Amino acid sequence: MVNLFPKRTKELKSVVHSAPGWKLFGKVPPRENLQKTSKIIQQEYEARTGRTCKPPPQSSRRKNFEFEPLSTTALILEDRPSNLPAKSVEEALRHRQEYDEMVAEAKKREIKDAYKRKKIMKERFKQEENIASAMVIWINEILPNWEVMRSTRRVRELWWQGLPPSVRGKVWSLAVGNELNITPELYEIFLSRAKERWKSFSETSSENDAEGVSVADREASLELIKLDISRTFPSLYIFQKGGPYHDVLHSILGAYTCYRPDVGYVQGMSFIAAVLILNLEEADAFIAFANLLNKPCQLAFFRVDHNMMLKYFATFEVFFEENLSKLFLHFKSYSLTPDIYLIDWIFTLYSKSLPLDLACRVWDVFCRDGEEFLFRTGLGILRLYEDILLQMDFIHIAQFLTKLPEDITSEKLFSCIAAIQMQNSTKKWTQVFASVMKDIKEGDKNNSPALKS
Predict the structure, then answer these.
(1) Residue 420's closest CA among 334, 316, 265?
(2) Spatial separation of the C-alpha atoms in residues 198 and 201, rounded to whole Å
(3) Residues 186-229 pLDDT 10s
(4) Alpha-carbon distance 206 to 195, whole Å?
(5) H or E stretch including 423?
(6) d(Cα 163, Cα 168) in Å, to the nearest integer?
């Protein structure tokens, strides 16, 4: 049955081509069965009946139009066809008024959009001018006199506004420092060592044949690094396999696992290394990377030192309660602890959680103020979304803070960060942290405001 219709169609086609034409009372030769146009049919009809068909009158179009209707909106100005009743004067006036209102509204939107575009361009131009003028100051005045000027009020204010991209890497390097005394030559040594290990891993799967390197080491230096590189800023593609920075990122992470086997590779490191690669040359990026991860806060998190991590969380909660008491109590009611959202923020220094340009600005001030600013930024984010978070339950808060909105802007966030007071009573961050350390060490948890349940 399925093939009946196609077959029937073929049969009909053959009949049409071979059979003679038909009239009402007999056959005609096939040559007369020609396809006729509507004009020919009309002429034959007139010849047989003696009647003449008058062509339908053309619709009366208004002349001297200033424009032709370009859309269906303009059709309300057109007259109706002649076979329909004409518009009344009232209806025509109403249509004209509706059309004028639509045109006026369209023009208003166009003017508004043009003004918005002009405002954006003006702000962008102003921002570019500020960056250019700041760059001149950084290059000609600040960097040549770094040690003298770095702590001055003028430089700190300029620093808060964000570093010009052209000097960002240099300022980061100077601010982070090089307490470990790593040289480019030392980087090459550890990179060579990493390449040897990779080669030995690729040649054998035996733990004993891999020069005594443990299976955990092998997984950390190969599988986990490779997996994380593909997840690092995937939308940029530059760190993906075949991208211009894929091998550089792999080299820095591999060299670090050889340089610090006690730390090894931990998820989140790839984002930190990637941000440094975008702003520094390869060897300089490695030097900054190693020194950055050697800071007490980063070392505690990347070595998964639970005791130290708890002290940081406890100190954070002191300032959380001080600045955002209502939200603090809301979180407490759901037993929502800082580790749920802070770990990811601290591990990647916000480079995974925030838009890249905004994350770089957070890095700018982090390099100026140290670990305190990481937690201040966290409080700034909570302040920015306080009203929304207060309406959420545990699950939705955790989901929201794990994946922050993409439309977050530097102006809004830094305005909220600036409003955060990093002082509890008369104690600053370092003093509160020291007291938390002391309380935990002495086991006097009840006297610590940070550890009250």
Answers:
(1) 316
(2) 5
(3) 999 999 998 888 887 766 554 444 444 454 554 445 668 888 89
(4) 18
(5) strand 423-424
(6) 5
